[in-house]
Every structure is written in structure tokens, then in C-alpha cells.
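Curious: can you check?
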Amino acid sequence: RLECIICYCSYDLSGRPPRRLYCGHRFCQACLRRLDAVANEQRWTPCRQCRQNTPTPRGGVAMLDLDLPTFLAVKADKEQPRPAGRARPDLATKGSGKEKVVTQQPLGLCQDAVPPGPLPRRGCCRPCLCC
């Protein structure tokens, strides 16, 4: 998911980057700023999913770790935006136009039987390269 589950806004690279709490849940930085609270002379950020508190770093919620996989997905989406409602264009060629891009598993790897080898079969109806 590339959106915050609190505000349902899409993550972005500046005002709403995905930040990870100690419990592992992620929210946008803007929502975490609103959740930041003081308790027992310490600043805490409570998780909206599991209610576990994360101590807020000295610099505020902007100093919490980025949720790196989500951040990289947002960055990749920003670098190669796709029109809404349309799938990615099918790339028929790669580079100079001579090589085809592989978009699915080549035929013959698991569908066709291969000669029996020295390895025992594991739950397959016939020997194949994946077993």
C-alpha cells in the first residue's frame, strides 16, 4: 500500500514520507506529528494499529526511520509515473530493439516432463525441473 492508513493520503517524498514505528507499523510523517504526545516527561508516538508507544526522537517524528521498501516504491512511482486507470505499456523490445523483454516464464520449464534423473520425486505427478 502506498497510502497512509490514517489519512488515506498517498505517501510522498517530502511532506508525507512513510515513517516506521518501533512496532513495525508505518504511517505518514504528517499523521505521526499529530499523534505525538507528552507522557511522564517523555514524548511518545502511539501506534494507531497496536497501541504500542514509540519514544519520539529529539528531532521529532522526522527523525524516525523511513519505511525503506515503501519509500523506494514511492520514489520509483514518482520517477516513472503511470497515467491513472491505465496499465504500464507493454514493452515489446529492450535496448536496441533486437532483444525481447521476458514477461512470463518460458514454456517447457515445469510443464514438460524431463527424463528421470537420480533425484527422487517430491509430491509431483511427474518429474520436472522445479522438483
Q: What stands out?
A: Helices lie at 29-35, 68-79.
